[in-house]
């Protein structure tokens, strides 16, 4: 991937799991060394599972600092998914060992974090290495979480669908109902499949 521009020691931040029916929304923040290069690194959505897993330890070991944070369904339902995504990014930045001088955010929505200047960049995860690195960490940490809670509720097959609204996941909701990990504020079933109460 090509890095178009850089701010010195910027923190890139991104989230994963925004469109899911179950599980947390997870964000990561990453500060990379000035001359960091990796030809494999790209937007996590464009990478295979194998390549994301290969990149995760490289990023964690070679970055200056990183943070990862989950915001769980109860909070998502309380404040809505957009606010929960931004809160996850703020909490990930909280975990950095050094306060970054600048924040670059994937997407077009963010709220001020302390007094630190920031820029929102649409499709930033395919333009900036620090955002791409954050996208990989957010995705791999969230996937690991979903695989863990899959053991508790294997009928939803979160190990495979990671909480996204696949037909299999919706069919399982119709058959078994919802769990503590489902987002009750989301439309969990299409109208024609509304659960009988």
Entry summary:
The chain has helices at residues 49-62, 73-79, 81-94, 129-150, 158-161, 167-176; strands at residues 11-16, 25-31, 65-71, 103-106, 118-121. It has 197 residues and is an alpha/beta fold.
Gyration radius, in Å? 17 Å
Number of helices: 6
* Alpha carbon gap, first and last residue: 51 Å
- Uncertain runs are 192-197
Broad CATH class: Alpha Beta
Total number of domains: 1
Q: Enter the CATH topology name.
A: Nucleotidyltransferase, domain 5
Helix content range of the residues, please?
25-40%
Keywords:
197 residues; alpha/beta; Nucleotidyltransferase, domain 5; 5-stranded mixed sheet; 6 helices; disordered C terminus
